[in-house]
Amino acid sequence: MERKHSLKGWRLIKENMTEKQYEKLKKEKRKRQNKKWNNKNRAKRKRYNHSYYIKNKRKIKKQTSDYAKRARKNKTKSKKIKAMARLANKRVRKTKRGKEQSRKNSRKRRAQKLKVKEYYTIDDEKYTYSLFKNICFNCKGRHNLQIDHIYPLSKGFALSRKNACVLCEKCNISKSNKMPEEFYTSEKLKLLKKIVNMKRKPHKYKID
Fold first, then answer.
1. Which structural domain range is residue 129 located in?
2. 180 lies in a domain?
3. How many structural domains compose the chain?
4. What is the pLDDT of residues 145-195, one digit of tens each?
5. Disulfide-capable partner of 167 in 14, 78, 148, 175 (CB 3.0 to 4.6 Å)?
6. Is the distance from CB of 202 to CB of 165 less than 8 angstroms?
7. Which CATH number does the domain housing residue 150 bear?
């Protein structure tokens, strides 16, 4: 049988504990006592529950129907809130900042999937754009520009300042997960390596 503490004993326990720990101890003790009583008096409990249900049938039915109505209302409410949140996210994604963030998130997800440690920040992205003068390295286009891995992520190469270049959407899709030797000409490849290995922002080269 479990030993019951006296009032003095509980005070002593309380002195050595925080209020939270003391309350937790009391809760656990109460749980054990309830479990013990329920195991001993299972048949008694069953009879009581049955008699209570028969006496309060209408009340119980009303409570359950009210609960179901509230649940349906909350469901429709949560659906509306989710729809509003989706719309707000769509609007945010269309902004410049939103596009940058979504690109960053997608890169992070892909890197996590492939278990590659990638630490490429928005500052690094700005640096790469300035390095390539906001021009597609392959076709010299100025629209729908994207940051691309020189050596692909799918083959275990993380995005970094020395493994990033600027391509337009069309060129990025056509490059896909090819190695740079497979996609660029030998002249372009030499120029790419020269640009990427520059320590400061370039001024002396032409992307022709």
1. 121-196
2. yes
3. 1
4. 888 889 988 888 888 888 899 999 899 889 888 898 999 988 988 888 888
5. 148
6. no
7. 1.10.30
Please provide the size of the chain in residues.
208
For residue 114, being part of any structural domain is answered with no
**Amino acid at the residue 88:** A
Q: What is the Cα 67 distance to its own chain's centre? A: 33
100-126, pLDDT tens digit by residue? Answer: 777 777 777 777 766 777 778 878 888
Report strand pairing: 145-149 vs 164-168.
antiparallel
- Alpha carbons 115 and 100: distance in angstroms, whole number: 22
Closest CA to 164 of 196, 121, 123, 117: 196
Domain-embedded: residue 178: yes
Q: What is the DSSP letter of 160?
A: -
Q: Which amino acid type is present at position 65?
A: S
Residue 169 lies in a domain: yes
Q: Which amino acid is at 176?
A: S
Q: Extract the tokens encoding 132.
A: 């390539």
The pLDDT value given to residue 19: 74
